[in-house]
Amino acid sequence: MKLALPAALALLAATPAMAQQAPAPAAAPVPVTPPKLLVVISVDQFSADLFAEYRAQFTGGFARLLSGAVFPSGYQSHAATETCPGHSTILTGARPARTGIIANDWTDFSAPREDKTVYCAEDESVPGSTSSKYTVSDKHLKVPTLGEWMKLADPASRVVSVAGKDRAAVMMGGHKVDELWWWDGKAFVSYAGRAAPTMVTRMNESVTARIAEAQEPLALTPFCQARSRAFQLNPNRSVGDGRFARAAGDAGAFRASPEFDESILALGAGLATDMKLGQGAHTDLLILGASATDYVGHSRGTAGSEMCLQLLSLDQTLGKLFAVLDQSGVDYAVALTADHGGHDMPERNREHAAPMAARVARGLDAGTMGKEIGAALGIAGPVLVGGNFGDVYLAPGLSKADRARVQAEAIKRWSANPQVEAVFTRAQIEATPLVHTPPETWTLLERARASYDKGRSGDLLLVLKPRVTPIAGTEGGSVATHGSIWDYDRRVPILFWRKGMTGFEQPLSVETVDIAPTLASLIGVPVPVQIDGRCLDLDAGAGSTCR
């Protein structure tokens, strides 16, 4: 089973995920001219822990990147390690406190609709919209991206952003993109009114045909076989030994499989080929958001045969992408990272020497806690508003005195719970200065401050203890997640590669906000705004790529 793509993409469309890839081009003198194409790849939920576990197994695209500049201890330094905030840091050079993207969703009591939850990549002013049925928009991103810096320096530079999630494509692409496409569950789509190029139309036809066919289970390598073990989470749910067999027409299973990343990267490669990115007089930018690892991590956890097959398949798909770019003859540079890390499901963690791993107790959420507090204090109506564990808002109708009573009671009750590490107030977070010290040294308040926006953040920040998964049961679609303030969710790899560069590895911490200024310096584009990141010198010797 193959995607029907142009001949130039035949390598990328090959079904056998474990096929050997062509080696990286032979080393040559490092070019003194800027690369003509920047390729930035985000692998959703690709933690530094997964990178460390699998790096010795990579033989394809990851293996090539390992020959470049390797920063195994990169950080999404902020507290809210979710998809939207993480993607907002990668190509802006700015932390969420500056980008304004504090979470995937936040509460805005002034939103012009009954639903006061706001999705990070929506326009909530659209009549009839909700936070789950929304119009995709870039309006909430407060800062420009690398692509916008490039267009400011050279309006002829082109920016293409393709991802499995709208929030990934939008937050990395920014406000001025030539092509921006994401998967909506049925097809690759863009903003309303944008005409689909022939490549997108053909890809959608190919993916539709592919989903309509059943997928046979993938073969297990010996390495993956050793990780294959079933965990019966409930009478109807078992994970750990899956091989991505899929019934015909199951689009959900397609999305949580290596097939999904193959289609995303194939579309990106197809647009790069059709648009001849990097083949003109200007430097172009290709952005790719590989989302399947996140869907696999949520639905099956970060261990087991599923994650093993996913990562080894992605390694080969990346190798095929690079082979297509090699064939174009374009001088390109690659940066790869992740929007956040991840945490395996507690059931498996407890068997893997982490007996303290647990699911959050039911009733600890803001909604339930708010009802109990309201009843205890004799206050009618909701007193606390909050979604997932993190930002909590005091209800807007409370008097000043009742706000103080509710806040004090919430802090008291949550702080007494053995699963809660801390409850920070807005005042505490605002009083904490933004820091630029090594991210592993940050206090919890400093991490919270990096995610704080006065107009969007909550009145309280609820922090669960380490290894407490904020999913109470296993009956839903997700059994594992991320989003915590702890390093297993903050740490991600950061990799750079360009043909001819001498590779090196730097184990000391760097940040994802360093990626944009590093690439900007590589192509000689000035940074036109204040940012939080710094340029990373990619020259292994006495020279410097930082200008």
Task: Based on the model shown, name its key terms.
547 residues, disordered N terminus, four-stranded antiparallel β-sheet, ten-stranded mixed β-sheet, single chain, 20 helices, alpha/beta, globular
Alpha-carbon Rg, integer: 23 Å
Summed up, the helix count is 20
Major sheet details: 10 strands, mixed
Query: Can you count the beta strands?
Result: 20
Provide the β-strand percentage band.
Answer: 15-25%
What share of the residues lie within helices?
25-40%
Terminal residue distance: 48 Å
Indicate the structural class: alpha/beta
Gross morphology = globular
- Name the poorly predicted regions: 1-8, 14-20
Q: Summarize model confidence as the mean pLDDT.
A: 94
Question: How would you characterize the overall build of this protein?
Answer:
Helix content is 33%, strand content 16%. With 547 residues, it is α/β, with parallel strands linked by helices. The strands form 5 sheets. Strands 1, 2, 5, 6, 7, 10, 11, 18, 19 and 20 form a 10-stranded mixed beta sheet that branches. The chain starts with 9 loop residues before the first helix and ends in a 25-residue tail after the last helix. The N terminus is likely disordered.
Brief digest:
This protein is α/β, with parallel strands linked by helices and 547 residues long. The protein is built from 20 helices and 20 strands.
Question: Could you outline the blueprint of secondary structure elements for this entry?
Answer:
Layout: H1 10-13, E1 37-43, H2 48-54, H3 61-65, E2 69-75, H4 83-90, H5 96-99, E3 105-107, E4 117-119, H6 146-153, E5 159-163, H7 166-173, E6 179-183, E7 188-189, H8 198-212, H9 222-225, E8 231-234, E9 237-239, H10 251-255, H11 258-275, E10 284-290, H12 292-300, H13 304-328, E11 332-337, H14 346-351, E12 358-359, H15 366-377, E13 384-385, E14 391-394, H16 400-415, E15 420-425, H17 426-430, H18 444-450, E16 460-464, E17 468-469, H19 487-490, E18 491-498, E19 504-505, E20 510-511, H20 515-522
Parallel strand pairs: 1-10, 1-11, 2-19, 2-20, 5-6, 5-10, 12-17
Antiparallel strand pairs: 2-18, 3-4, 6-7, 8-9, 11-18, 13-14, 14-16, 15-16
Helix pairs in contact: 4-7, 8-11, 11-13, 12-13, 15-16
